[in-house]
Amino acid sequence: MAQVVTRLDDKLVADLDGLVADGFVASRSEGVRVALEKLVDEQRRRRIGAEIVAGYERQPQTDEELAGLDAATRALIAEEPW
Fold this sequence. Notes:
This protein is mainly alpha-helical.
């Protein structure tokens, strides 16, 4: 496993230590790792979302496709046990 050295301001370190003290994460390293994993995942999801939007902009859905989705949505709602 690679090791990354970074500098953090005192307030952020204190907040991180609070997470450790509260048992939210086991260590500073785990806290930083969890935060980075979430950041990387968030950016990956944004990139994928933007690619999906770009695809629909290049080739929009047809009226027939949209009508089929409306019917499918109504059927799903009708199945709900409200």
